[in-house]
Structures are given as structure tokens and as C-alpha cells.
Amino acid sequence: MAENRDIVMQDHGAFAAGSHDFQSDIETILSSDTIGVILETVMLATGVRFAAIARVTQDRWVACRTVDEIEFGLRAGDEIDISSTFCQTVRDTSQSVIFEDVETDEVYCDHPIARQFGIASYASIPIFRSDESFFGTLCAIDTEARSLKQPRILAMLRMFADVVGRSVETEERLEAQEQLVSHEREMGKLQEEFLAVLGHDLRNPVAALKAGLRQLAREPEPEKLSMLLPLMNQSVYRMQELTENMMLHAKSRLGGGIRAEIVPNAPLVSAIRHVVEEVRAASPNHRIELSLNFDENVSSDPARVAQAVSNMLANAVQHGTSDHPIHVLGEDVEDGLQISVANRGDPIPDELRSALFKPFNRGIHANGAGLGLGLYISASIAKAHNGQLDVSCVDGVTKFSMTIPRLT
Fold first, then answer.
1. How many helices (H) and strands (E) does the chain have?
2. Could you give the angle at the alpha carbon of 245 between the alpha carbons of 354 and 344, nearest 5°?
3. What pTM value is reported for the model?
4. 3-state class of 67 per DSSP?
5. 3-state secondary structure at position 343
6. Edge-to-edge strands of the sheet including 288-293?
């Protein structure tokens, strides 16, 4: 039967299980000692020389585990055309397909599938989960006639199919529980980190604001006021940014992601100019150059886009050099509208760039201000507009670019 391997592989596109989209099911079946014993017992009890557990969907047949003594050549992860199997009938009818000798069987005599693979005897038993959802089949096949319809054999095959279904379901529940426990542990760590970082980041601006108020109370002269108010305004802006990012992150987690409320012909240019002026007032030591070369009104969520720009600007203020200007540029591009913020400063190492847009990531600036939410939220806002946020570091210039498609 070695030639059957060529038929299966060449005519039906079987392939190895490397990064299979049914990999979880395959691994569950392969790792079960119980299922291994079941397949061996089926072969001993029936005399067949091929037994398998297959994952069967409406349009796919995938081997999860096989015991092959007749060189069909099917291994775990191999796939054959569903129409070339009897399992499609099993799935559609929820009934077993069994014949002992294809030469004398009234239904399957001279059947093209049996003829193509040289099958003489065959049994395919449906496997269900406890909720009656269909998983796949328990298959027993031979190229010689075998006694498969004896009442004890049929009862054994059905019992084993039931055991396989329960085993699969148990493994799936255990895996889901392990994932839940792992997720809860990760959330616990994130919560601890969140509270620690928030406490640290709010402490400095609050202390600076209180110090300014105390000094104004002692020396309320106009010249002191003109000097202290920008510093106090910077502290208020910093606290506002922290709380807005915190609230957006919380809403994102509870609601399945940051959502954009698209407004037709929204005043996007005005919204961006407003946040740029806020950052200029809060960071007088940094020069910010703004150039918006697109229409005043753009269908978008202007508040959220402005928040994304504000976060990119805050990042540039924090990590850029104060002796070079920060450039904010908005322009039409082939993919839609692009808004970028560029600053000079230390380049971001390649190995850190992939994690920049994850929550609570503060990269190489862990001792600096910020919850590590700003860029994550900016990226989420871009995604909510069906766009994306990218970063580049070229010749000492770090540029974050948010590209969103034009919405009509």
C-alpha cells in the first residue's frame, strides 16, 4: 500500500502539522495516553491495520493521530480532501459508516472512494462533545475484509468514540482553565505595576503644583506669578494626561478596545492645533513646529486623534533633546492621512521597537515620567480608525507616524 501515500499526498494535498491551524486539537490527541491505548485496542479487537482519530469539519479532514500498519502514509497533521472520505457522510448524518467487505456490501460495493484507496473494510464512528457538537471520527480501515458489525465490536467502537470525545473536552477545559489562571496572574502583575507606576508618576507633578502654590502664597508678586504659572500649568497638564490615558486604557479593557466615534467632516485641524498649543504651554523649553497640509475638516473622531497626537508629543518632549525643535506634520499620503511627530534624541534600539505599543511598556526610559500607556493608546486610536502607528529612527531623528484612511 505504499503507493497510497503518493495518492494521498499528491492528489489530496496532505501536509505536515508544523504550524497547523488545528494544531491545538492535534496536540491534545497526540498527548493523550488514553487515546493511544484506544487506537491500539481497536486494532487488536477488530484485526484492522489502520486506525485514526480525525478532526472533521464541513469542508476539511485532518488526521490528529494514526496507527498505520498498511502504509497508508497518513500521519498526524496530514489532510485529505473531505470529499474523498466517508467521514463527510458521518458528519452530515451523525451516523456511523461501516462495511465489512466492500465486495459484498449492498451500499458500498464498487464505491469510488473504497476503490481509489483499496479499502475492503471500513468503520467511521462519530465523535461528539457533551454538548453534542461534532468533533470528528474514530476510523478503522483495512485492505482485507474484517468483522466490524458484530454487536460487541460496534458497542466497543461507539464506547471508545464517546471516551475520545470526553477526553478531548476535558483537555480543552483544562487548557482553558490554565489560560484563565495565567491571564489572571498576568492581570494581577499588571495591576500591581499600574498602581506602582501611577503612584510614582502622579507624585512629582502634585508635589510641583503644591510647591508652586505655597510659594505664590508667600510671594504673590506678578513677576513670581509669570514664572511659576507655566510650571504649575505643566504639572496640571501632566496629571491630566496621566488620568486621561488611565481612563482610556480602562475603557479599552472593559469595552474590548478603544472605539472611534467618527464624525463626518470633523474639525480635525483645530483639534490638533489645540493640543499642540497645550503642550507648548506646558513645555515652554521645547520648540514645537506645526505644519498641517490637509483639509480643515476630516471625517474622524477628532478628540481621539488629538489625544493620539498629544501622546506622541508628550513622548517627544520627554525623550527628545530640547535644543532641537519637535516637528508635527500632517499631510495627505497614498494610504490616506498621515500625522507624524519627529524629534531628535537617542535612537530606540531595534529589539525594543516591537514592544513600544504595548501597555505599561516604558522601554529604556523606565525611570522617566509616564505610565507607559501613551503610545499604546495612540496605536489603539489609529487602529480604531482602521489605521496604524509606526515608528522609525533615521540619522538621530525618531518619528512616530499615524496613518489613517480617508473616510467618506
1. 12, 13
2. 50
3. 0.47
4. strand
5. strand
6. 288-293, 326-333, 336-344, 397-404, 388-394
Rounded to whole angstroms, how far apart are CA atoms 26 and 66? 11
CB 198 within 8 A of CB 371: yes
Whole-angstrom distance, CA of residue 260 vs CA of residue 378: 12
Unique residue bearing C-alpha cell 467521514: 87
Cβ atoms of 23 and 17 within 8 Å: the answer is: yes
**Three cell numbers at 299?**
471625517
Q: What is the pLDDT of residues 225-267, one digit of tens each?
A: 777 777 677 667 667 766 766 666 666 655 556 778 889 999 9
357, 321 contact by CB (below 8 A): no
Higher pLDDT, 73 or 337: 337
Name the percent of the chain in helix, strand, coil, to the closest 5.
50, 20, 30
Residue located via cell numbers 494535498: 13
Yes or no: say if 369 and 238 are a contact pair by the CB < 8 Å rule.
yes
DSSP strands (E only) in 171-325: 263-266, 288-293, 298-300
